[in-house]
Amino acid sequence: MPVTVLGASAGPPRSVNCRASLRPPPAVRALLSVRFFVGDLFGWDQATPSSVSESFAQRLTDKDRARSLAPAGTPDGLFRIVYRFENEQLDEIINRAAHVPLICDLAPTPIVYKRNFLMRGDEFNKEDGAIDFDVVTELVFPDRAAYLAWAAQLSKPGSGERVVADELKFLDRSRTRAYVVEECVTSG
């Protein structure tokens, strides 16, 4: 019987979210969707050792770094903060796709490895303020034994430390949780 694992995780808690009430218009969302799809297809957004370390934050002066209301590199939705001044903020995109290749390099790829990012502010999210996660990851394995073998591969010495180090770059591990669920599909 297939085993499905759902995990919810979030970046570090923050008191300011400048984008909470801003939602791009449908045309912009559509263009971004196309861009990310094509980028995924051609591997444009896969991190390289040099791209992970490159950041506009490295170009900040000491004065601007001290003036910023949030530390450079702080996750902010799909972005990370370069600086946040009183009336101005500069963000850069976080390459979340870089984590998946690491996991797939360390352990066999699950049947399904899907990330569903929360659309904050969407009218269908009835209790949006109470939602304490940014993404739900869905992993599907052929059976429980395959899941346990996968988890063991990621936990073995050397691998476990690499996974933790990578996750600390973009999520708050104390707020991550995982559940095994039973999938029931109704079709018409």
Widest beta sheet: strand line-up = 5-6-1-7
User: Radius of gyration from the CA trace?
Assistant: 18 Å
**CATH class (first level) name of the largest domain:** Alpha Beta
Strand residue percentage: 15-25%
Number of helices, where a helix is a run of at least 4 consecutive DSSP H or I residues: 6
Shape assignment: globular
- Biggest sheet features: 4 strands, antiparallel
CATH topology of the largest domain: Alpha-Beta Plaits
> Assembly type of the shown chains?
single chain
CATH architecture of the largest domain: 2-Layer Sandwich
- Low-pLDDT parts are 12-22
Instruction: Please provide the count of β strands.
Output: 7
The N- and C-terminal alpha carbons lie at a distance of 23 Å
**Mean pLDDT level:** 75
Structural classification: alpha+beta
* Helix-strand pattern: EHHHEEEHEEHHE
Query: How many distinct domains?
Result: 2
Portion in helices: 25-40%
